[in-house]
Every structure is written in structure tokens, then in C-alpha cells.
What we know:
Structural class: alpha+beta
CATH architecture: Sandwich
Radius of gyration: 13 Å
Bound molecules: copper (II) ion
Helix content: 10-25%
CATH class: Mainly Beta
Amino acid sequence: MSREEAAQSKLRLLQCSTISSLHNIVMVDGNGYDKCSASAKAKTYSSGKDKIKLSRPGRYYFICTFPGHCDGGLKIQLNAY
Ligand SMILES: [Cu+2]
């Protein structure tokens, strides 16, 4: 990784604050985002103060997997550059 890439990657850090007993953050693919479903091995962030490193440019999708939350709109997609 070049110095420039390293500098850019430092910017790709998603900092998330949640109330861990009420919500979580699960990284899914576009299909999982659309259908509000996550595979059993999907990475789950539930500390309530997670920092998620987005290791490369692209589109990232996150949902909350508590029942009804994603369907109620608790999901986000973002582009990392
Ligand atoms: Cu939730």
C-alpha cells in the first residue's frame, strides 16, 4: 500500500454510535440490503461504539437485524472513495 493509499484508507472509517441493547449494525451486500436479510456469518457490530474500517473504495451496506428495524428503514448504504 502506498503512502497515499494509506492516507486515504484512514479516511474510510465509519464510526457508529448505537444503543447496543436496542440496535446492531450488520454489514451486508446489496441483496441483503434490499431484502433486509443477513447471512449467519455476516459481520455484526454491537458494541454501541464501533469503528468500521472500510478497507477499499466502493459501496457498503449496513442494516439493523433486530426484528422489524430494517424493514422500518433502519439501514444505510454509502459510497467510500
Ligand atoms: Cu435496530
